[in-house]
Structure formats: structure tokens, C-alpha cells
Amino acid sequence: MTQSLDYLIFDYSEDDEGNGTWDAMASVPAGRLGALAGEVEAILQWAGRAFPGRRGAIEDGGDWDFDLHAQDDAGEALSARYDEHAARMQVHAARTGHTTITLTVSGSAAFAEAFREAFCIEGD
Fold this sequence. Notes:
By secondary structure, this protein is of the alpha+beta class. The protein is 23% helix and 35% strand. It has one domain (10-119).
């Protein structure tokens, strides 16, 4: 079953071994932050279920990993983290304007194939 993404649009790159990296950025007003956070949660929850116990840098033997950041319109960092145990994202909204979230997901060739299928993401 594929899941649609309304906010996160990924750019993809791949190394010679087929390991993939997806970079996405989305900027939303406070009223849409919950929906954007929900997409991040859906991706990271899926990864944890599909590849349980295998999160870590590929060069260290992991199958997948992620990097998550948030900032306001002025470029000031905001607190953003994903609690793996609760499977929830915690993010502080910008006081004014938009909150921008950046998410990078990287994974092995097997993870890349499963990720593309799960979220209908092209890998070219």
C-alpha cells in the first residue's frame, strides 16, 4: 500500500552501490505544521517498521538513517526531533511566519527500493 505525501517533495541521489539519499524541504504556516509533521512521522514510522532495529549509518552496517531540522523564516534553528520510542515528531513552530522542515533519509539499496514503493517516490 502506498502513502501519498502532500508537503514533502524529495530530491534523490544514489551512490555506485545503489544506496539512496532523499532530501526534502517544506515550509508551512503554523496551521499546517501538524500535517507536515504527520508526513515526517509517517515516513519514519514506516522505516522503523519495515527495517526494525536496522537504523544507522550505512558505512557502519545500518540499512537506513535520517537527519531532521527545522527553522523559522529568518533562518533561526527551531527544536525538531523524532522520538523513536513514541514514534512521534516534536517540533516548535515559528513564532511568526512559516516553519521550514528539512528531512534527509538515506538507505541501502533494499531500503531505497522499499521506500520508493511505499511512498510512490521516483528514484531518478
